[in-house]
Structure formats: structure tokens, C-alpha cells
Design brief:
alpha/beta; Rossmann fold; 2 domains; five-stranded parallel β-sheet; 7 strands; globular
């Protein structure tokens, strides 16, 4: 089974790309969705221990947790040490289930693919990218987004230019969605003939 790492900076179109890959029959693991689930499950007691008062009624209060990290940036590493291993385990379960089903390719949609070193555990990487100004325009349209919040989000992520250099494939999402979808289709067609080794080496 070939493992594809799908990533890109915030506002670049990862979700749209992932949805298209699903429509083509590829199973996609959504790391952000996994974190949301963990914030209502296994991660709650661990986060409460490290960040007292940031959970209530068995769930993480994302606003309070975000404020705790924003006011003490050095604590981000503590949060990541709690959450990232749980996400990796969820990814492992997903990949093992898909391998058991006999699928040819599976996708890990991970916003911090390169930042966390997860790119070393996939067979190939796809980065979605757009012009910086277009990225900012998209993000500033999101509810509750401010320039300060945007700056704090961007500083945690590897610059888009670095991701493009590290990627096996880059999909430009600056234009029409149809063009991005066509680019993804071409990539997937090319990957049909690609040898796979990551699953056996890292996930089996």
C-alpha cells in the first residue's frame, strides 16, 4: 500500500484537495479531525494535567487551551508532546485497517507533515500551495480571525516556500478548483506505478 502525505500551510486548500481524493476513492486520514476527537476523549485528562482549567464536562475548551498556549508559547511543545503520539497511533490504526482492506493507496492529511518529521514515514508527499496574499485573503474571511491570530498561526508552520522545496508534488490552488483537481488526478495516475515501502517499514 502506497502512503501519500498531503499537506500545505493553513488556507492553502488541503481540505478541498482531500475531499477530491476521497471522491476518487482514496481513503484519507484527517489529522485535524483526529485531534478534535482526542479533545473529546483520550487527550482530555492528559491536557487537564498539563494545562489545569482548560477542560470542562469531559472536553477540552479549545478557546482556553489556545489562550494558554498563546500567552505561554514555550508550552506549545508540552501540548505537542501530549497530542502528537496519540495522533500517530490513530494514523497507525487507520493505515492498518486500510491495508487489511487491500487498498492500493491511502492518504495522510497532516498540516504539520514536515514540521513533525512525518514526511519520513510516507512514500510520497503532495503540497498544496497558493500565493501568500491569496492565502491571507482566504484566512481573513474566516470567522473570528484577526491579524494577530493569523500571525501566531503562521509562525508555527514551516514557510510555504520550504514545503514546496521538500515536496515530491506541488499543486497550485491559486486558480480554478477544476485545475487543482486535474493536477491531483494526474499525480494519482502517476503514483499507480510507484513502489511502496513506508507501510511495511513504519506502520505494519
Amino acid at each position: 500500500m502506497l502512503i501519500i502525505g498531503l499537506t500545505g500551510s493553513i488556507g492553502m486548500g488541503k481540505s478541498t484537495a482531500a475531499e477530491h481524493l476521497r471522491s476518487r476513492g482514496l481513503p484519507v486520514f484527517d489529522a485535524d479531525a483526529a485531534v478534535h476527537a482526542l479533545y473529546e476523549g483520550a487527550a482530555v485528562p492528559l491536557i487537564e494535567k498539563e494545562f489545569p482549567g482548560t477542560t470542562s464536562q469531559g472536553k477540552v475548551d479549545r478557546g482556553k487551551l489556545g489562550m494558554a498556549v498563546m500567552t505561554n508559547p514555550e508550552r506549545l511543545a508540552v501540548l505537542e508532546a501530549v497530542v502528537h503520539p496519540l495522533v500517530r497511533e490513530a494514523e497507525r490504526r487507520f493505515l492498518q485497517e486500510e491495508a487489511a482492506r487491500g487498498v492500493r493507496m491511502a492518504v495522510l492529511e497532516i498540516p504539520l507533515l514536515f514540521e513533525t518529521g512525518a514526511d519520513a514515514k510516507v512514500d510520497t508527499t503532495i503540497v498544496v500551495s497558493a500565493a501568500p496574499e491569496l492565502q491571507r485573503q482566504r484566512l481573513m474571511k474566516r470567522p473570528g480571525m484577526t491579524r494577530e491570530k493569523l500571525a501566531s498561526l503562521l509562525v508555527r508552520q514551516m514557510p510555504d516556500a520550504e514545503k514546496r522545496v521538500g515536496a515530491d508534488f506541488v499543486v497550485d490552488t491559486s486558480g480554478e478548483i477544476a485545475a487543482s483537481r486535474a493536477a491531483l488526478d494526474t499525480i494519482i495516475a502517476n503514483l499507480e506505478r510507484r513502489d511502496a515501502s513506508a507501510f511495511v517499514e513504519f506502520w505494519a
